[in-house]
Amino acid sequence: MSLNPRLATRPLLSDSFSGSIERSSVAMQILERIKTALIRGELKPGDYLPSESELTHSLGIGKSSVREAIKMLQAVGVVEVHRGQGTVIRREPGEPLVDPMAFGMILARGMTRDVMEFRLMFEPAYTLQAMHNATPEDHVRIRQAIEAMEAAITNGEQTAHHDVAFHRAILAATHNPMTIRVGETLIQLIEAALETSMQTLPEVALKDHKAIYAAFQGGDAAGVQAAIEVSSESWETNLTYVD
Questions:
Q1: Does residue 201 sit in helix, strand or coil?
Q2: Amino acid 176: pLDDT
Q3: Residue 128 within any structural domain of the chain
Q4: Which of 40, 72, 194, 231 could form a disulfide with 208 if both were Cys (CB 3.0 to 4.6 A apart)?
Q5: For 141-192, how does the pLDDT look when each residue is reduced to its tens digit (9 = 90+)?
Q6: Closest Cα partner for 236 from 110, 108, 115, 116?
Q7: CATH code at 213?
Q8: 115 and 85 both lie in a single domain
Q9: How many whole angstroms separate alpha carbon 87 and alpha carbon 81?
């Protein structure tokens, strides 16, 4: 007799899913136990979580708390629910409905010095990562972003979209989902400032992008870092900091 594939990939209840839970913040405590099980390797991508009934029984909690925890995991892209089968740990992070990292940075209340310092640290790192991982198709997309930006400036139609397209093309070339997620969060936060830059210093932004890509294309790590530093200095002149 063949086994139900869901049962075959669902782990037995472990220490992470046994023992009662305190009544306060029940759903958050369930999330902590699931995180602990993932860290310990008791749960792996592709595994099904214990069923709602099993969690309710083993943890001594109500079904509503289990459902709330599952919804929270869905919202951040950790699990997906297969109707009639159960809840499975995603093999790759899904597109989150709610991104805690993005909200945390947004709550910084605008363009703070902390965000600027983070960009100065993170942008060179992901650009160098992309330089090593970029495929010929990635290079085509980066060049196309620069060309589209140049054409828009010529026609007086430049917006933050043209600046962002360059950075997203670099990010995509890292081929690293974690890098891309952090980078996307940063882009969302600085997009308004990029709009200001594109309206006040578009030719400078274009020159900076070309310099970054010239070093990138040539495999010049020091040149990439130097070009990003120059770009950051010119971009920073447009910022209004919030303390």
A1: coil
A2: 94
A3: yes
A4: 231
A5: 999 999 999 999 999 999 999 999 999 999 999 999 889 988 988 888 788 7
A6: 116
A7: 1.20.120.530
A8: no
A9: 4
